[in-house]
Amino acid sequence: MDAHAILANVWALGGLPAGALDHVHLQGTDPVFPSSFAVGTAAQTSIAAAALAACEVGHARGQQGQAVGVDMAHAALECEGWFSVNGQVVDPWDRFSGLYACADGWARVHANFAHHRDGALALLGLSSATAERKDAQRVLYKWKALDFEQAAADRGLVASALRSFSEWDAHPQSQAVAAQPLLTLQRIGDAAPLALPDLRADQLPLTGLRVLDLTRIVAGPVAGRTLAALGADIMLVNSPHLPNIGVIAESSRGKLSCHLDLRVEDDRRAMDALIADADVFVQGYRPGGLEALGYGAQALAAQRPGIIVVSLTAYGTQGPWAQRRGFDSLVQAATGFNLAEAEAAGSAQPKALPMQILDHASGHLMAFAAAAAKARQLREGGSWHVQLSLAQTAHWLRSLGRIPSGFGVTAPDRQVYLENYASGFGDLVAILPTPQLSRTPAHWSRPSVPPGTHAPAWPPNF
Questions:
Q1: Of 78, 127, 319, 408, whose CB has the highest number of CB atoms within 10 Å?
Q2: Is-catalytic flag, 359?
């Protein structure tokens, strides 16, 4: 449970010099949130890894090294994801999302997008125009949990049966996940180092790094937001025909935002122009989604030699669930956390983790791996593909051990970590960036804005 040892293990996956770990200070211990799992440690070490790797990029560009401090309470609160807009706290959940009792157990439904909600209700023989949550519960009492999970998956919907840890461990997908590391950095092509401009001493270490962010749900947006706080130029690319969720008001801090439809030839040309000057390409579509449009990792490496491609999936790229859609809450349910947390809390009903830590830790790990790959690209050249999954992050979180006294605490007061931001959505109140850099404080230089606010063009280099 030693946070420094856990950070060292994560750091080693990036292939960066171990000596950098001498410049990180980790403050605080679990439990910081009521949970039997080390959610504070997961938050702290993933955030520290991202900030420290960014400083390695700065050092490779001629900038003097700097120390990184990460407070566990602050890190956990950042991963809680709380925010308000114009004084209103945004509820991220649709009324049909959540836990349902089944004939032989429990299932969790994710209905935040209308097409997922309508599809799940149609599977139950209900209409979204007239159904109430109690109607969905009445029908699900007649379903076996695993049957409902499979029927939903067969229709491209998002639902999970709740499993115990022992049930998950016996599943072929669990075994596929356990056989993989937390994350991988793979060299996928030859290329000369893509140099970045030299930095002044007062500039953030990722200043001038150009990142294309093709993500919409929490983990990917957190990755881009984290890189933006460390100085990168982030271009959030959303399709005009795909929905977003309210969290975008908070998670797009620091980003430019454009609309492109990759099925339209003019928009593809605009995307190609962005890729021509991009350093990093981040995407969270299901496996094969972008490949079908011509923007898979190998195609990107051919188009822009030296690029770093970061790919997130729900359950990894190996095993029978490699193509299955999923979100944090569903992966928690499928991999055993909801039942384990309930048992630890003495609850008769399944219990979720106190925040969507799989999403948030994965997002910070994506930022870490992107920065680590860029530091290596500056040193070694090559094009690189980074791969992570929510299920691999879940496996890692479980490996951190349990907190016997975890439910004996209350969450820390977030008030001291809040800041007001003017945004394109209104008056935003949200958590300050966690990492404390000794010379160049992390911050967002751009406000969050609605999708499509900007033209698809990079700003001039500094």
A1: 78
A2: yes
Cα angle 95-97-99, degrees, rounded to a multiple of 5: 115
Q: How far apart are CA 114 and CA 241, in angstroms?
A: 13
Residues 6+ apart with CB under 8 A from 390: 219, 312, 313, 314, 315, 326, 327, 328, 331, 358, 359, 362
Average pLDDT over all residues of the chain: 96
Phi-psi category of residue 3: left, alpha or beta, with phi > 0 → left and psi -120 to 50 → alpha: alpha
Q: Which strands make up the sheet holding 24-27, listed edge to edge?
A: 24-27, 68-71, 436-437
Q: What gap in Å lies between CA 253 and CA 243, rounded to an integer?
A: 18
Amino acid at position 424, single letter? G
**Strand ranges (E), 33-97:** 68-71, 83-85, 88-89
The edge-to-edge listing of strands for the beta sheet with 88-89 is: 88-89, 83-85, 426-431, 418-423
Q: Rounded to an integer, what distance in angstroms lies between the CA atom of residue 444 and that of residue 221? A: 14
CA distance 183 to 4: 18
Count of all residues that appear for the chain in the document: 462
The pLDDT of residue 251 is above 90: yes
Structure tokens at 301: 């490496």
pLDDT digits (tens, 9 = 90+) for 179-194: 999 999 999 999 999 9
Catalytic residue among 104, 359, 413, 427: 359
Give the other-Cβ count within 10 Å of 93's Cβ: 12
How many whole angstroms separate alpha carbon 316 and alpha carbon 303?
25
Q: Is 409 helix (H, G, I), strand (E, B) or coil?
A: coil
Pair type for strands 418-423 and 24-27: unpaired
Contact residues for 5 (Cβ-Cβ < 8 A; gap 6+):
none
- Per-residue model confidence (pLDDT) at position 1: 66
322: left (phi over 0), alpha (psi -120 to 50) or beta: alpha
DSSP string, 59-76: HHTTPPP--EEEEHHHHH
d(CA 181, CA 152): 29
Compute the distance between CA of residue 314 and CA of residue 265 in angstroms, rounded to an integer.
30
Strand partners, 385: 186, 309
Q: What is the mean pLDDT of residues 420-445?
A: 97
